[in-house]
Structure formats: C-alpha cells, structure tokens
Amino acid sequence: MRWTYKPFPPGQAAALARAAGVSPILAELLLRAGLDDPARAAKFLHPALKELDDPLRIRNLAAAADRLRAAIAARETIVVLGDYDVDGVTSTALLVSILRRFGLHPRFIVPRRMEDGYGLSRSAIDRALEPGKPDLFIALDCGTNSHDEIAYLRAQNIDVIVVDHHRSKEKVIEHAILINPHVHHPADAAPPDPAADAWRDLCTVGLVFKLAHGLLKQLRAENHPTAYEIKLRDSLDLVALGTVADLVPLHGENRILARHGLRILQHTRRPGIRALMHIAGVRPENGLMPVDISFRLGPRINASGRIDDASLSVELMLSDDDTFCGETALRLHGLNRERQDIERRITEEAERLIEENYAADPGIVLYGENWHPGVVGIVAGRLSRKYHRPCIVLGNEGEQAKGSGRSVDGVNLVEALGTCCEHLLSWGGHPMAIGVSLPQRHIAAFRARFVESIRRHTGGGLNGPALDLAIWITPPEIGEHLMADICALHPFGQGNTEPVFGIRRVTLQQRPEIFRGQHFRFHFDDGTGRRLFGVAWKLATRIPPTGTPIDMAVEITWNHYNDRKLLQLELIDWRESTEEENK
Description:
This protein is about 40% helix and about 20% strand. The chain is α/β, with parallel strands linked by helices.
C-alpha cells in the first residue's frame, strides 16, 4: 500500500494552535480536515444544536408541515411508507412516533425486498392500501423518481408527501410535496450547492427531524399544547442511527445531529434499542461510537429488510413492550447471522469470478443466478474495498437482474451510470452507492458500457489504494492528551475520517502474538520505559520483524476491557524503516 503525507507550510499549524487555543497536533488534524479558520474550527470542535438552521428554509418543508397540521386538525388517516434500510426504518419510526403524540394512528409499511422491489413500487403501494385508502400518503427515503406511482396515488385522491435524499435523474415529480435538498427545481437559478447550506447533505431521517422541527414551530406559534410537550431532542437517537448507518458526510448539520444523537443513544429510553444493544454486545456505559452503529446495531436492523420484513425493525423501534423487544432483538440477531452466512458464500464466489474473468476491468459487474439480492450491496462494498475499484453485484429476480453498486474515492457512481444507463430499467442512489435493475439478457452489454464509462471517468484506470497519513508523531506523544484531541474530532465517518498516525522507527523486541488465526497483538517500548500495546486486525499473514526498525501507520483508540479503559494502537499497515521522511 502506498503511503502519502502532505506537510503544511512551516508555522501554519502552530499559528492555528495559538489562535484556536488547541495543541499543535490537534491544529494539524484540523488543517487536514480543511479547517484553517479559528472560528470554523471552534464550531467544528463544539457542534451545538442551537446552530441548526431554520428548518423552514428547506424547499417545500413549510408546505409539508402545513399539510401535516391539517391532518392533525382533521384527524385524518395517514400511511407512512419507508425504505427497508436503517435510514428508512429510523425515518419511519421517527415520523410515526411524532404523529402518534398528536393523537393520530398512522399505518406504516416497509417494502418487502423480494416481493415489492426497491422503493415506492406499485406492489408496496397496493399492499399499503389494502386496509383502506388514506387521506395522506408519506414516502420516506424513496419516491424522488416515482412519477407513475405518485400519479397512481393522486388518481385515487390521496395526497402525497415525499421526503428523500436520493439524487434525481429525471424531471421533478408533480402533484406531490417533495422535500429533497438534492433536487434541482426548474425555478432554481442553479443546482443545489452542498457547501451553501449545512443541511444539504442530510439523509432522510435528518430531513424527517427537520420536518418535525418545522411542524412543532408552526404548532407552537398557535399555542398547541402537545407541541410544547414534545422534546424533539429525545428523537436524536433515531437520527444518529440512520445518519451514521447511511454513510452521509459527517459535516455540517449531520455532524451536529450525529454528535448529540450518539449521546442521546447512549441513554436511550427506547426498550427496542436497549434490547438490540444488549444482544449485539454494545455496552453504552463505555460511550457509543459510530462503529457501534456501523458494525453492530446497523447490520441487525438491516438484516430484517435484507432477508425478511423490515417492518419488524420499525416495530422494535416503536414498541414499549420489553418482552416483545427482547424476542424481536433476538430474532434480528438470528437474521443477521443468516445474512452473514449468505454473504460469505457469495463473496467467495464473486472473488473467484473476478480473479478468473474480470481482474483487468477498471469497473466490475458481477451476476449470480443464486445470489440473494438482499445482500449483494454488502458484497459489492467488500469487493470494491478489496480490489479498489467500483463494483456492481447483481442477483436474480425472475427475468431481471437486480443489485447494488459501491464505489471508491474519485469515482462518482451517479455520474458514471448517467453515461451508460440505456440498458437499465431503473437506477439511482448516491455517488458512493447505487441500486440498479436490468433485464438479464442485457448484463453483458451493460458490463461493457460500465467498464468503458469507468475507464473514461478515471482516465484509463485507478491508482492502487493509498494510505493517507494525517500526521507523524513520536511514541512519547501517545497518551491521554492525544486521546482528548482525537475525541474532540468525534464522530468519525464519511467526510470526517479517523486520523491515521505515522510512527517512525519502532522496534519490536518480541514476536507478535497471533490470535484467532487472522489477527495479532504486539507491544513496544516508547523510549521512556513505558509499554504501548496494539492489535492488528486481519494482518496475521504480514507479521512485522523483530529487532528491525519499522514504520507504523496506526489509529489510536480506547479499549474497554474488564471494566478498564486502556489505550490501544490499531495497526493499519507497516513498512521497513528508511531514512527518507514525509513519504
């Protein structure tokens, strides 16, 4: 792996450290995040809820809040349809819980992946309407491009609100109230600029939070008693779950909501989330990190939608029944184990296909007759990371192939697909993650067009993966003060990556200890007689030498073990030391 490090001009970090009142190391980390102004750095380090922008500034949000006010006043019937991922599940749970506080009884439905396909499909709509036609239909985390489906609802005199954050590739939907910061309305002079508004990159649960905020503002202006009773801050546990799991950039309002939401999540009163934490081995007393969502809670919430019915996860979020929550959390845990087994088999088959047939392609499209469409997105993510190139993985659904794609830094999948989508029946998503469907007979033609599109977008190909070092440090600098600096930058995630530190000329005196066949533990002296301990995940095939100086690239974390909090290095890569620096 190629290491990169770009030093700043001499004195720049020291100047920011003095102006912002932070350590030189934290100053350099702030510069690495693009925060060279002391005022901006202060806001980043201390994200405050009071900094959230007026929700009514978001296009159509006031109109949607007006429509909800009318529904509350008239005690109307409402159906909420949310997508089956964590963002859709938390969005649905948040909106349903708010409407229930006002005495409404909204029905909710989540598309069944195998029966309804993705998003606002006719199949899902018909299932939602079986108990009767509502006055208002609200689609969450889907619907931006659902022209025919919305026309179908409107033909039955059902009002429609769509809250979504997926990119639009078509004209703006008509006859529905659309809240989507990424949609370019004809009346706008220019396309949306993510840098212009701190809320522009919110995922759907963040937008639902803003909608609820706007609704409460309007109702409080009318002195509605219930509006004053609701503490919207208590909903930030759901917002943190959806925001972190959906991999939206953790800057602007996403950072504010995730930072405060993780604290609310740590003390959540929702029995369902507490039960899920217990079964997933999350110990909130140790503090919650995005990794707890990404690798423990999120996959279990997602598992129901991938191979069963995601409404189970919504019911878990909304229930106050401890027995039901415990049983449901256990069921989600079992579904996640099943999902892992399916995913492992597909990944092994996909890797063989790549090595045998597509190793030279700059972009990869794979199809498996027996691959479960519910897990191909996870497989695509694993493959894109391993082979460092965009990957689309497709499963079999009748005469169609359906699946998901994941990208790598430097390749916008939405732009890439925009030039090779003639064979697709449907597609959409984000620059880093998309969903597609196409007739099986067109897979080969689409693969050729996708490979050519990626080749054009990358100028012929991608460089190998690079490891960007945030800063070089010395072993004596590793301690509680450094950990305080790192914690000030939390939460880490998309758009705010965890810093990787370079350490030069470390000598291991004892051979690392391999455990579980894949990982190893190590320790070394920091030069002052203190031992520093570390772990290397899935690097047991690359054991560093003893007695020879090596350079290390590490992340630094707290490890909670047996009620003790220990500082731990997590080795990302190592190389033999040379006299060259800043490489």
